[in-house]
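Lecture 7 notes: from sequence to structure.

We start with a single chain of 112 residues. Read the sequence below before looking at the structure.
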Amino acid sequence: QVQLVESGGGLVQAGGSLRLSCAASRSMFTMGWYRQAPEKQRELVASISTGGTTDYADSVKGRFTISRDNAKNTVYLQMNSLEPDDTAVYYCKGTYGPWNYWGQGTQVTVSS
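Now the structure, written as tokens:
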């Protein structure tokens, strides 16, 4: 059974930083971070291919950085200059062939 395990969420003041990690139990092709705020749809935050090509939501460009360690099957999300609107549950997603795998989510709360 493939598992993705996230860590690193928490409570931080506006302007602060957090680093999320997601460890997969096997190698993945594209990996990404999504988030879902209360009463909103889940949205893509950032993604990264096996070769390191990245994509970001406009709302986080210049503030968030996604990276991965293929040897560890791990993807990271460095979040700087956090804003209250970044408050959400953050989910890790991994893609292997036609299959998508999700982590259980980690809460990020940014206080004003």
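The CA atoms of residues 35 and 41 lie 8 Å apart. Keep this in mind for problem set 3.
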